[in-house]
Amino acid sequence: MSSAVTRARIVEIADRLFYERGYQHTSFADIGAAVGLSRGNFYYHFKSKDSILDAVIESRVASTRRMLAEWETEHDDPADRIMRFVEIVVTNGPDIRAHGCPVGTLNTELAKLDHALRGRARELFTVFRTWLRDQFALLGHADQADDLAMHVLTFSQGVAVLSNAYRDEEFVRREVDRMRDWLSTYSR
Amino acid sequence: MSSAVTRARIVEIADRLFYERGYQHTSFADIGAAVGLSRGNFYYHFKSKDSILDAVIESRVASTRRMLAEWETEHDDPADRIMRFVEIVVTNGPDIRAHGCPVGTLNTELAKLDHALRGRARELFTVFRTWLRDQFALLGHADQADDLAMHVLTFSQGVAVLSNAYRDEEFVRREVDRMRDWLSTYSR
DNA sequence: GTCTATAGTAGGATAGAC
DNA sequence: GTCTATCCTACTATAGAC
Asked: Tell me, in Å, how far CA of B165 is from C1' of C12?
């Protein structure tokens, strides 16, 4: 198989496993078994486990940007776009209940490890933060746009952690409703 | 040294290291170096790493209950007690910026590991949840007390994750102010 | 109750054949 | 590009001396 295709498959599988089991808890053997490659062969594609993580983060940043760009074409009203983000916790409810937020849990894990790629992982938050900030600015709240963006991120992370701990779908819906009410005070 | 004292010291050190570095990332050698005990000697006190974790959780549950009981003697108004909880993210700001919330990060990590003690760790959340629920009930909101308690927990977890990722003290203060405003609508 | 020595395993990483 | 074989290190856990 071509190098590029195999590399992309490794990143895709590693992405899923890092999310489901965590970075530390995922071994080369795990990725190899899922991809269908021998352990030693990874080193043809990546020079270390960290470099796989780097590629995974890069891939997540890119796919997040694509998703946000798509939301912009699907909704003209910035408030609808923001609600689209808020509702991720419902849309991806099963994954989040099982494994938490992919961005939040990765940042939390890398912070404990004091890992070199902690800063790169934080960029994943920043992609959302910047985009949310822009939406609030479009709604006419340029002066407090970043603060409001952070508040929406705070909501999403809090819901993700507790929905993961309690696996409670109803709790998530109540929090989303509360957020919708809050957001309506900032809409046009 | 007596068995009980050594055991208590192991739990205390392990508690701190599990918080600072995470459970997986903390080895017996790490704990041993900090306590001043040889690796092999742990097994006189604990039969496995998991049993140390169990003791750490037990210890955290007990100290949390003590803390909450103390808050009840210090504040007569349930709203003041709730604010005392809300302000943990400021009071323990440096630790939370550096290592996240001890309860949230442990729950997140154990969920990824699908660890046997996940349920025990969740009790740590439940201690706070039940106490907060009781305070809202005292404020006359018995019908929605658990929902309000979960909302306060959601705030604390969201703030902890983002304050850990961005190490931003001002962000925390803004969120606490927002929470104070919200809480005032439920006070007497 | 504490120590050293060591077994046993798993994981990251490398070398070299095909 | 992929494989097997292997090295090295770190870790959990046990055995047995003191």
From this structure: 28
